[in-house]
C-alpha cells in the first residue's frame, strides 16, 4: 500500500460485510433500435450475479450519504441480500440485464464513471473537453434538474449520460412499480433532454435485487453497473488486492473541486500504467441499443 501523497486504500470484503451488519449502505451519494456507439465486436463482459457490497465508507444509522446536496438518508437496518420477489409475475420478456463491475480485457485500461450530479464544477467540463477524457455519467434527476444544461455540456464534451434514478432511493426497499417509476421516468426525461435514452443503469448505493433488474429491463436498460474501485479527492480505494486491474470500473462522485480531484485521480491511474478508456468502445453493441 502506498503512503504519503500517493495514499491508496484497500477495502476488504470482511470490513464491508461488518459495516452492512451495523448500518446500511453507502457509496453512491444512477421505439426503434438505434446503435449508440461502435458496432464493432467488443470483448465479452464479466458480469456478476449480484452486486458485492460497495467499497466505500458506510455511515451509521440516521446519517446521510456523503454527497453534497439533499442526500438520501441511509437506512437503519441492513439491506436485504435475497432477490426481490414483489411485483407482478415475471414474464418471458428477455434476459435480465447483467450486473457488471469490470470489462473483460487484457489492455491496461480502466473506465471512469461519475455519479449523482449535485456539484457542477465548470472547470471539470473544460477538463473533460480539453483532454478528451472518456467518462460515463450516472445522473440522478433530482441533482440534475436545477441545471440540465451543465450535463448537456458534458455530453457535448463526449460523456455518456446514463440512468441513476429520480430521487436516489434504496431500491431494494421498493416495490416493482416504485422501482420501475424511478428508472423509467428518469430515462424518459433524459431521452428528451439529451436526445438519447439511457440503456445503462447504476442503482443508488450499488444496491439492487432481482426486482431491480426486472424493472430495469422493462425500462429498456441493458446492463446494470457496479464498480471495482472508488475515488475520493483523487485517492483510490480498492475492492481487490494488487491495485488496478485491466477493465476495472472506477466510481467517482460529483464533488466540489471536481477538476482538481480528477487531475489527481488521473495521475494515480497513469502512475500504475493505465489509461481511461471509452466505455462505448468496449461494450457489445446490444448494450447500447435503445428500445425495450
Polypeptide structure, described:
The chain is of the alpha/beta class. It contains 7 helices and 12 strands. The strands form 2 sheets. Strands 1, 4, 5, 6, 9, 10, 11 and 12 form an 8-stranded mixed β-sheet that branches. A 4-stranded mixed β-sheet has the order 2-3-8-7. A hairpin with a 2-residue loop joins strand 9 (229-232) and strand 10. Helix 2 (122-131) packs parallel to helix 4 (148-156), helix 2 packs parallel to helix 7 (258-271) and helix 5 (176-194) packs parallel to helix 6. The longest helix has 19 residues, at 176-194. It is globular and about 45 Å long. The N and C termini lie far apart (45 Å). The model is unreliable at 1-27 and 29-92 (pLDDT under 50).
Task: Label the overall shape.
Answer: globular
Q: Mind describing the biggest β-sheet?
A: 8 strands, mixed
Number of strands: 12
- Helical/strand content category: alpha/beta
Rg measurement, Å = 18 Å
Mean pLDDT: 78
Q: How much helix, percentage-wise, in residues?
A: 25-40%
Count of helical segments?
A: 7
Q: Give the uncertain stretches in residue-range form.
A: 1-27, 29-92
Order of helices and strands: EHEEEHEHHEHEHEEEEHE
Ends: how far apart? 45 Å
The proportion of strand residues reads 15-25%
Give short descriptive properties of this protein.
single chain; 292 residues; alpha/beta; eight-stranded mixed β-sheet; 7 helices; 26% helix; globular
Secondary-structure topology with pairs:
Blueprint: E1 8-10, H1 13-23, E2 45-48, E3 99-103, E4 109-116, H2 122-131, E5 135-139, H3 141-144, H4 148-156, E6 160-163, H5 176-194, E7 200-201, H6 210-218, E8 223-225, E9 229-232, E10 235-238, E11 249-253, H7 258-271, E12 275-276
Parallel strand pairs: 1-10, 3-8, 4-5, 4-11, 4-12, 5-6, 7-8, 9-11
Antiparallel strand pairs: 2-3, 9-10
Helix pairs in contact: 2-4, 2-7, 5-6
Amino acid at each position: 500500500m502506498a503512503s504519503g501523497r500517493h495514499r491508496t486504500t484497500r477495502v476488504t470484503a470482511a470490513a464491508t460485510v461488518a459495516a452492512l451488519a451495523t448500518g446500511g449502505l453507502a457509496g453512491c451519494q444512477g421505439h426503434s433500435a438505434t446503435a449508440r456507439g461502435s458496432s464493432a465486436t467488443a470483448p465479452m463482459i464479466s458480469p456478476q450475479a449480484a452486486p458485492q457490497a460497495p467499497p466505500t465508507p458506510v455511515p451509521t444509522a440516521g446519517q446521510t450519504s456523503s454527497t453534497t446536496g439533499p442526500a438520501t438518508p441511509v437506512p437503519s437496518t441492513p439491506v436485504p441480500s435475497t432477490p426481490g420477489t414483489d411485483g407482478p409475475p415475471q414474464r418471458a420478456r428477455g434476459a435480465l440485464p447483467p450486473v457488471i463491475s469490470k470489462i473483460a480485457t487484457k489492455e491496461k485500461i480502466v473506465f471512469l464513471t461519475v455519479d449523482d450530479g449535485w456539484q457542477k464544477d465548470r472547470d471539470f467540463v473544460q477538463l473533460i473537453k480539453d483532454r478528451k477524457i472518456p467518462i460515463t455519467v450516472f445522473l440522478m434527476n433530482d441533482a440534475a434538474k436545477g441545471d440540465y444544461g451543465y450535463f448537456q455540456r458534458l455530453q457535448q464534451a463526449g460523456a455518456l449520460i446514463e440512468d441513476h434514478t429520480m430521487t436516489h432511493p434504496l431500491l431494494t426497499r421498493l416495490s416493482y412499480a416504485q422501482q420501475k417509476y424511478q428508472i423509467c421516468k428518469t430515462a424518459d426525461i433524459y431521452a428528451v433532454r439529451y436526445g438519447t435514452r439511457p440503456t445503462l443503469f447504476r442503482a443508488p448505493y450499488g444496491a439492487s435485487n432481482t426486482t431491480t433488474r426486472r424493472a430495469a429491463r422493462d425500462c429498456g436498460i441493458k446492463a446494470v453497473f457496479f464498480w471495482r474501485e472508488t475515488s475520493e479527492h483523487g485517492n483510490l480505494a480498492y475492492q481487490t488486492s494488487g491495485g488496478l486491474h485491466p477493465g476495472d470500473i472506477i466510481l467517482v462522485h460529483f464533488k466540489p473541486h471536481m477538476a482538481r480531484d480528477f487531475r489527481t485521480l488521473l495521475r494515480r491511474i497513469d502512475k500504475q500504467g493505465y489509461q481511461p478508456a471509452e466505455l462505448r468502445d468496449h461494450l457489445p453493441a446490444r448494450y447500447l441499443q435503445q428500445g425495450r
